[in-house]
Amino acid sequence: MSALLGRFTPAQVPPRLALALAAATLLILIAVAAGVLLEGLLSRGAALALRLTHHSPPRKSPARIRLDELDARLRARERESQK
User: Fold this and answer.
1) Which of 8, 9, 56, 66 is the most buried (most CB within 10 A)?
2) 69 Cβ partners below 8 Å, 6+ apart?
3) Residue 8: its pLDDT value, please?
4) Residue 65 host element (H or E)
5) CB distance 32 to 38 below 8 Å
């Protein structure tokens, strides 16, 4: 095993390339975070715009419908147990 590990040596990366890779990684992370934030803000705005213009909301997937039904049953069961 040690003979196999001895063959692999870490790559020598020039400092400018290392800095460029770190900067690119940071920019990608910032872009993903901004995209998630923007999607969260715009999805609420889109739902409001659909309601104001009397458009029907998008259809729910069958899986989402089942999850909503399960959530409703669990909430009803919780309310019964609290009485």
Assistant:
1) 66
2) none
3) 64
4) helix 62-82
5) no
